[in-house]
Amino acid sequence: MDLPTVEAMVPGDEADWRPGDCWLAGGTVLFSRPQQGVRRLRDLTVLGWPSLAAADDEGRPGLDIAATCTVATLARYRPPARWPDLAVAIRRCCDAFLASWKIWNVATVGGNLCAALPAGPMISLAAAFDARCDVRRLSGERRLVPVDAFVVEPGVAALQPGEYLHAIHLPERELTGRIAVRRASLHPLGRSAAFVTGHLDVESGRLRLTVTAATPRPVTVSVPAPTAAASLVDMVDAQVSAEGWHDDVHGLPAWRRHMTLRLVEQVRADLLGAAR
Predict the structure, then answer these.
(1) pLDDT greater at residue 14 or residue 95
(2) InterPro entries in the record, alphabetically (predicted)?
(3) Is 234 helix (H, G, I), strand (E, B) or coil?
């Protein structure tokens, strides 16, 4: 879609922030609908951020995924053996885009998070590993925001005017854990209606389940691993019901609830089976 109100495109680090400025990375969401009031595009892709980098910033080891990293680049990543389930989790989440290779080569990880859509698969991936969003300002100020707080509501991310998403940090300890992913949609090539990821901490044995797609924003429940199936399902149901089940053309709330709770038990069984 043309953006007829845009008058100029400038580098993303242009110091002069003006009303009507808008960040540009892949642009697959930005150019998919009218953007009334946008006057300048601030191109983040020219800043040369490494797409993927092992991180040890301020004592926080792990993996940094640049906001400008494309889905195709992420899908090709081959992580080290000490992160046993990362490659599978990446592939399952990338496949949930149900998009052509053309989109994969342009769409960015950060753009998917900033779009803040319930079915955003990069949100699901980040939530699976309890990621932190590295949010920065042009002045150099920085803050780390948990992914479940970064997504405020459908279409709204926790970014103030002049702030941008620089990277998504996956902590080392989360990367060494075991991951299980389950997804449901109304039809095989449909948008995700329920997406459940599970993380088993290999040191503490603690199990964390995160629900996305079926909810307006990520919802997480953390329990000791041996928790009984019925108890875990009840806990997830209570937690999500307090937030509310998402309702749109891709699935009614009652159906999303039914599928999510079914996936919760499947993820629990997958992770406990892997632990054994």
Answers:
(1) 95
(2) Diverse_Substr_Oxidored, FAD-bd_PCMH, FAD-bd_PCMH-like_sf, FAD-bd_PCMH_sub2, Mopterin_DH_FAD-bd
(3) helix
